[in-house]
Amino acid sequence: MSTRKVRKAVIPVAGFGTRLFPATKVVKKALFPIIDQDGRAKPVILAIVEEAISAGITEIGIVVQPDDMAIFAELFKNPPPPELLQKLSPQNQEYSKYLQELGNKVVFLTQQEQEGYGHAVYCAKDWVGNEPFLLMLGDHVYKSDIDKSCTRQMVEIYEQVNQSVVSLTTMPAAIINKAGCVTGVWQDFNSILTVTQLAEKPSIDYAREHLRVEGVAEDEFLCIFGLYIITPRIFDFLEESINKNLRAYGEFQVTTCLDKLCQAEGMTGYVVKGKCFDTGLPDTYRQTFIDFYSG
Length: 295
Hints:
It is a single chain. This protein has helices at 44-53, 69-76, 82-85, 90-103, 117-122, 125-128, 150-161, 204-210, 234-243, 255-265, 282-294; strands spanning 8-12, 33-35, 41-43, 59-64, 106-110, 133-136, 140-144, 165-172, 180-188, 192-200, 220-230, 268-271, 274-278. By secondary structure, it is an alpha/beta fold. The protein has one domain (8-290): Spore Coat Polysaccharide Biosynthesis Protein SpsA, Chain A. A hairpin with a 5-residue loop joins strand 2 (33-35) and strand 3 (41-43). The radius of gyration is 19 Å and the shape is globular.
């Protein structure tokens, strides 16, 4: 069976950003600034879009609240007015043109009600259509440890295995209740895993009993790094959850539906050669601001 090319990325950014209140009353979480590795001050969403482009993605769907579409369009679709453009350095004038070219690859998808990450992903169903897609968190940025970007690594693994791929990293037991975790059997030790189960924010006791992976240190577990390549069948399971009001922690989750997808189609886990930086909490955002640029 031939592998369909991964052309599209979905980036949900419609959440309220409650953990960064009150700053998020006036600035959307995805528009918080960071200093990227090229030394530029960028909104988080721009660094995420550029990460997607580095994997060969040609179309990017950003899931936003309807009232926020204009501010994201200002970044990706609208050039600065002439009086401002002429004040920019020649390098920044060129970068402004680049932003418009990037904007040609971006579409905005709306989430009318904020019902969780799974619901946000489901809002991309019609746009994605019947093809695999790259799913990215709207508040995480990535830095590769090798010459291939983190997303490029994921795409290449997908092309090898021809099934959904979830990115992995190790986390200590103390914080796994904040993450999606997986278990499975190594195909290639500490690199490629045949996933057998995914669990959303498990307790330590549950993880110790059900989510151990051979060779991973005691009281460390394999958790989701924040990147996914998913087949379109995920939308069947998301739709079922929404129609039957099957929630976890009060919201429609992606991880529970990924577990169903795993049981139906199989799934591969990949330990990404890189680092993930979380901009969604005050402490982690502060650390991202320090570490992401400096490495």
